[in-house]
Protein: Putative aminoacrylate hydrolase RutD
Amino acid sequence: MDLDYGMLGGRRPYYRFGDADADPLVVLPGLSDAFQRIDPNRGTAAALAGLFREFDDRDVWVVGRPRHLPVGSTTRDMAAGYAGVIDEQDLWPADVIGVSMGGLVAQYLAADYGDYVDSLAVVSAGTRLGGHGENVVTRWRSLAGKGRWAEVVADAERESATGLEATVAPALIEAAGRVVDLRPAVPADAVVSCTACLEHDSREVLGVVDAPTLVAAGRSDRLFPEPRVRELKDGVADATLALFSGAGHNLTTSEPRTLNGVVRRYFDGFRGNGLYP
Structure:
């Protein structure tokens, strides 16, 4: 499999893999995109290709947000930027997967640029953060503003994972942070991105989303609780809900094979209720 990666326009990280001659699939990553420390590289490209191997017969683009985000950038502003990428790279209409913060941005992409989105999967996101999620992201923004990066990353793992991973991984991250600099490439982008998540509320635009939309989330997601997820599903005319028992906010990495199988079959046109967990 060919792996391509780099910076679009010198500012926006991207990874491309799969079949370049096939139908496009565009993946919008989560808030962790703003916390990346290094430029796109082959190791990350290979890891992403493995994570999304159910789509290896598609032209898969994992596209981040641009570096040096303007202060005050909203998820709607970011959607406009993604529309520009899809247009410039001639990827439309594309199937789109938006994960966590990427799922927030994807809602506006489908609402404002419907011609660019064939089908949509919003993963681990709702119309807006829940009350606990607002408190958590506010805490991350404060820690980021103080440059306490190991604490942010460890707390993100603690809030996103379930079971033993939620206990063990944060301690390992905090220990690593004492010897490794976890500062992101552009620290200010982390603060801007947290603010964009806190201000996101898509309820007023969901009625104009025409793309068939799969809303997938873990039942134990602490950032986007089930009522917020169901609110998203109910706001889109052609939407299907898939809830995963025992999974938290890190659904894409804790249940990748099951999740990707569900998303793949949805994009292939299967809408039967028996498909979903």
Notes: Residues 131-145 form the longest helix (15 residues). Residues 132-190 form one domain.
